[in-house]
Amino acid sequence: MKIVSAIKRTASSCIATILAVSLLIPVAYAQDPQQAPPPPDQQGPPSDQQGQQGQYDQTPPPTYPPQQLDGMVSRIALYPDPLLAQILTASTFGDQIPDAARWSDEHHYLNGQQLSDAINSDQLPWDPSVLALLPFPSVLDMMASDINWTNDLGNAVLAQRSDVMDAVQRERHRAYQYGYLRSNPQIVVNNGPYIDIEPVNPGFIVVPTYNPVVVFAPPRPGFFVGGAIGFGFGVGIGGFFRPWGWGSSHFVWGSHVVIVNNRPWGRTWANRRVYVHPYDVHRYAAPANARYVEHHEAIPRSQHEREEVRAGHAHVEEHDHHH
Predict the structure, then answer these.
(1) Exposed, middle or buried, 102 (CB in 10 Å: 0-12/13-18/19+)?
(2) How far apart are CA 155 and CA 165, in angstroms?
(3) pLDDT tens digit string along 271-318?
(4) 8 A C-beta contact, residue 108 and residue 316
């Protein structure tokens, strides 16, 4: 009987060991990144882009509460989705915005194919998300003139992209609830769980003008809500600018995804020093003298031109640049 009892105890011990090992195997398998690679937009950069610093930056990310994020996005929340996507991604390269704003202002008289050719011929060294805003000198001017706001927005996009997108939706729902945000000849407003704002003509992007203090609050009695958002200023965006992501930039609001150049944009706070989003343009390194090659006359906008655009009026070129 002692022998039988010993055999039973040994068998029970073996079974317990086998069960324990079998439970550990799936855990080990799940933790092996070679077995289950993440989706392409979550993988980070290829190993040859990681350098000696490693793939991830260990600096603690900033944290912004919802109310602060609401205020942060209020000035751009009602922009059409394609333009908003370009602004959010470009804001993460805040150090490049002032130079890009200056170049855009000095070449505001170029548009369409001429502007596209100028961007290429000058071999501008900025990220494609920043280059995508060069047709919009007023937008870059807004970002450059309040660089602290731009940097805060960029950091929030990197560290709290989902929260930033939720803040945009909260602001849009407020403007819609109070009657300010509606479809018109320039934009289509799709109201639902998530509010999309799309240009009526994908090749013409309007830059709305509005006062956040007005459009995100209940209208006072007798106030004409239909005139609170201006849509007088717009920019033609044709196939010339598609390589920088135009025509294929939008949001998947429900899953908090930003699509730029037909690919999910995967730059985050952790991989911001190494992530490179795929674009269809050649990237130029910054010149040794920190100055790009200039092939066109630099003609800054006049103060009157800037004021007209800020007021939402259509741009009228005041310079004679033909010599």
Answers:
(1) middle
(2) 13
(3) 999 999 999 888 888 766 555 565 555 556 555 555 655 555 455 555
(4) no
